[in-house]
Write a structure and sequence with these properties.
By secondary structure, the chain is mainly alpha-helical. It is built from 5 helices and 4 strands; from the N terminus they run H-H-E-E-H-H-H-E-E. The longest helix has 42 residues. It starts with 11 loop residues before the first helix and ends with a strand.
Length: 160
């Protein structure tokens, strides 16, 4: 790794390479407020302090568990000002867990609905006359309780 200057500053390309992101991502992080704007060298190029790598890595890890850049910007602003936003971080993470649990429940319901649909369709296919349509898609109906379940839910029409 070559430093841009004797103080260990990193160019945007060097920081991007070390962090495994693009230069555009670094600029986006700056605009969103999760990465402080770096100093500029005499040539006008960005010069990031060495600790910018840890900041980018922190942001990347937080994104993987569901934090948004806007959430991180608020938390990091408080932290950078000397505050301790720990309770807020905990609250946000707890809400992420609730969201994941909701998504898992909806996906489980979708999986169960698809399994039932496929069993129904297999029975329809086994009973149909060769060359005739089984009307599989027509066997799907609109969910009578759309507010109660995921928009992914599948219902079958009762066979006559």
């Amino acid at each position: 790794m070559k430093a841009v200057s004797g103080n260990g500053a990193l160019s945007s390309g060097e920081l991007a390479d070390l962090a495994g992101v693009s230069r555009d991502t670094l600029r986006h992080y700056e605009r969103k407020g999760v990465l402080p704007r770096p100093l500029r060298g005499h040539n006008g190029y960005r010069q990031y302090p060495p600790e910018a790598l840890q900041r980018v890595q922190l942001v990347r890890r937080a994104l993987t568990v569901g934090f948004t850049l806007d959430e991180l910007a608020k938390v990091l602003k408080v932290r950078d000002a000397g505050g301790a936003p720990c309770e807020e971080v905990r609250r946000l993470a707890a809400q992420k867990l609730v969201n994941v649990q909701d998504q898992l429940r909806e996906l489980t319901e979708l999986r169960d609905d698809l399994q039932k649909t496929l069993r129904d369709w297999d029975a329809r296919l086994a009973r149909r006359t060769q060359g005739r349509r089984a009307n599989l898609l027509e066997a799907l109906s609109v969910d009578p309780n759309p507010g109660k379940r995921s928009h992914h839910s599948i219902k079958r029409k009762k066979e006559k």
